[in-house]
Design brief:
This protein is α/β, with parallel strands linked by helices. It has eight helices and twelve strands. A hairpin with a 2-residue loop joins strand 6 and strand 7.
Length: 272
């Protein structure tokens, strides 16, 4: 469609479908406003941890609608879909690697961009907390959910007083020494691994912290999340990468019109 942004590659991660804090309507709207050759779903798209605890009843129509949009991208535009497993959708370990037409389910992926090689991973396998102390990771997940709940209450208070949105969790990540150190350690481990694999860059998610910068000669890219930041990575036709935000696109580009479709079941069922 004329006037719609076109990208070689779009990377999104950490949508956490099945949780109350997932910005599923915003990511669906975002994908309806863009065209791309390749869409990388870089982990934690479905929150299997939460669905296993609360039951499949938490799966809503808007979650199914998200996958309808993905299927439409494949069918109408020939978009290649790369689904990289994350720790919250680690049930995909039982399927990966799997290829179904334009859909690839993988544990990690190697992307070539203008002659440069990028190692694509959700990132949890490089996080000692999630790999060696899963119980602590789940405890931290509960704490993060509580923080989001408090954040929601706080921002309702701010909206009533005409103040803009303020992210408590992002503020903590930026100011608390242990959180800053954790992010830095995570980035450095990934950069070192990319260099060992003779890659020029690494693309990840997991820590909900969007980034696009050079670290010790390696291009480090993080797609952020669709719980708070509502961010994605894009690669244009010249191979240039940038972090884009939903707020940059919403209202500026008309969404693609949708035809009436019958309800479809989610592409993947959650293993019990």
């Amino acid at each position: 469609m004329e006037g719609r942004p076109y990208y070689r590659t779009i990377v999104v991660s950490d949508i956490h479908l099945g949780t109350s804090h997932s910005k599923v309507n915003q990511i669906s709207d975002f994908l309806r406003r863009v065209d791309c050759d390749r869409l990388i779903l870089n982990g934690d798209i479905i929150d299997g941890w939460h669905l296993q605890k609360s039951g499949i009843g938490k799966w809503k129509q808007e979650h199914t609608h998200f996958f309808k949009i993905i299927m439409k991208m494949m069918e109408k535009h020939g978009t290649e879909i790369i689904y990289v497993r994350g720790n919250h959708d680690d049930f995909l370990d039982n399927l990966a690697p799997l290829r179904l037409a334009n859909l690839h389910i993988v544990k990690d992926y190697m992307l070539e961009s203008n002659g440069k090689h990028y190692f694509v991973t959700h990132g949890d396998v490089f996080d000692k907390v999630t790999t060696e102390m899963k119980w602590l990771a789940k405890l931290g997940d509960i704490g993060y959910t509580l923080l989001l709940w408090l954040n929601s209450l706080y921002n309702k208070y701010r909206v009533k007083r005409g103040k803009p949105y303020y992210s408590l969790s992002q503020a903590i990540k930026q100011k608390v020494k242990s959180a800053v150190s954790y992010i830095s350690d995570f980035e450095n481990v990934l950069v070192d691994f990319a260099r060992a694999r003779q890659c020029e860059g690494v693309i990840c998610g997991h820590i909900h912290h969007p980034e696009n910068r050079m670290i010790n000669g390696i291009h480090y890219l993080n797609s952020g999340d669709w719980v708070e930041t509502m961010s994605a990575l894009t690669e244009d036709v010249d191979g240039e990468w940038r972090v884009v935000y939903y707020s940059d696109l919403a209202g500026a580009v008309p969404p693609e019109e949708e035809s009436e479709q019958e309800n479809v079941l989610p592409l993947i069922s959650i293993a019990s």
